[in-house]
Amino acid sequence: MRGNPNRTPQQVAEIWGHLCRMARVECKAVAWPPAMDEVHRANRRRYAQVYVPRGPLELATAARKLPDQHLLGVLAHEVGHLYLAQAHGIPDHTEDEADVGAFEALGVAVAYDRTWPGKGLQYASSAPRRVWGLFR
Ligand SMILES: [Zn+2]
């Protein structure tokens, strides 16, 4: 697991765009609002949120430094939210259901790293090779 990659916002947005295309979901551009940095400062496990049904995806600056496995877990979870809303017409669903959506849409198994507080932080415990390929 690689640490501190410090990706550019463009690199993260590209990965996100590819994931959305693979899942056949529509999403408005990635946004990096200062308010999301505030949310992350208040709760260390909150790096991202997405507005259903079509975005935007909002990210905290700190997300750029997550290890690949964790960034993929976080982004796949958010894709799961869009997928449930768009492909299944279920805009109101649970956080656990978003993980099921991530697996159905992308084949990414989302698990939780308990070294982060509370429920822990999403990470991809397994993912298809073509998905890992986005991180090279
Ligand atoms: Zn969620």
User: What's the domain count?
Assistant: 1
Can you count the beta strands?
5
Beginning-to-end CA distance, first to last residue: 13 Å
Shape estimate: globular
Q: What is the residue-averaged pLDDT? A: 95
Order of helices and strands: HEHEEHHEEH
The description of the largest β-sheet is: 3 strands, mixed
Query: Low-confidence parts lasting 5 or more residues at pLDDT below 50?
Result: none
The total count of helices amounts to 5
What does this structure look like?
The two termini are 13 Å apart. This protein has one domain (9-135): Zincin-like (2-Layer Sandwich). The protein has helices at residues 9-23, 34-42, 68-87, 95-106, 129-132, and strands spanning 30-31, 48-50, 57-59, 109-113, 121-126. The protein has a three-stranded mixed sheet, with helices on one face. A two-stranded antiparallel ribbon has the order 4-5. It is globular. A hairpin with a 6-residue loop joins strand 2 (48-50) and strand 3 (57-59). The chain has five helices and five strands; from the N terminus they run H-E-H-E-E-H-H-E-E-H. With 136 residues, it is an alpha+beta fold. It binds zinc ion (ZN).
Describe the structure concisely for a colleague.
By secondary structure, the chain is α+β, with helices and mostly antiparallel strands. It has helices at 9-23, 34-42, 68-87, 95-106, 129-132; strands at residues 30-31, 48-50, 57-59, 109-113, 121-126. The protein has a 3-stranded mixed sheet with strand order 1-3-2, covered by helices on one side. The chain has a two-stranded antiparallel sheet with strand order 4-5.
